[in-house]
Design a protein that fits this description.
It is built from nine helices and no strands. The chain is an all-alpha fold. Helix 8 packs antiparallel against helix 9. It starts with a helix and ends with a helix.
Amino acid sequence: MELGLYLMLRTETMTHTDKTAGSQRYTFTAVKHYLWVALIYTVLIFILTASAATRQEYHLSALEYHVISFAVAIPTLLVWLAAFIGYAKVREYAWSVRKTPEGIYFDELAGGVTWLAWSLPVGTIIPTVLNAIANNHPAFHNASIILSNYLNLILALIAFSVIAGASRGLLGSVKMKLSLSSARFLIMGFLLLGVLYCFFTFRRLDLSSLGSADNPYFLPVWLMVISVIVPYLYAWFMGLLASFELTIFSRQVRGVLYRQPLAMLVGGLLTVIFSLVALQYIASVEPRVGHLVFNYKLALTLLFRLIGGGGFVLLALGANRLRKIEEV
């Protein structure tokens, strides 16, 4: 009997250990990916051609330019680390509830958070390379700005659309839907965001000629509206809608022990969505110039990146607590 009891306890311990190790593999993989991404970006900062415009404006040597660029990048690197750990923890929780009715939606949510996390380094490293090419080949400058803008737009569309699909599924799993008052508040907030965005953007366009590309975006007005403004507004609406639906879902979950970490996860995700919308908003109404400029835009960009990093930390803590509850 004692032998049987010992074997049963040992089997349960091994099962729990295997379950924990199976879920935590996502964190190990994410950290490994982060180290590679951080190394690549750091190397690029020091080996790519320094911007002549920035060096001339601030009277910097090539070495001073690279050192300052790295110093500016340190907060960004820290935010990336928080983002990668954050999406790994959400994936771990999704793995732990994969056999539940909501498991498929949490897995989809984890996929959306993964897109959000990867959009940060991808949306920074590729434009950095494009800008460096433009520094050596000025004729490529316009194309580098256009490609960078479209890259960040595509990443935002994918991430917010995936998260919106997951939030709709989770809300449907508890037989809930957006109330009329919440829908009105969402629409009013979105209209305010959209009107201000269009106002600031149109100020930089020559509306007297819809075919003119003589603007900081280097796109004709009609193409700018169809392929940039409208898709960004759609992506932001998906992000705002997902935020409302996830908030409603977190309030409908039974059990204080489960509801509190879920609220942390949702709160972290809302913070991340808010920060990314703010960053995309700033980058859209204040067009890219392709080189480092020390102004209020840089300060706001770093601020909202750090806010997003805090959101990823909160998201990771909430997801980690939820996973531990499931593994008990």
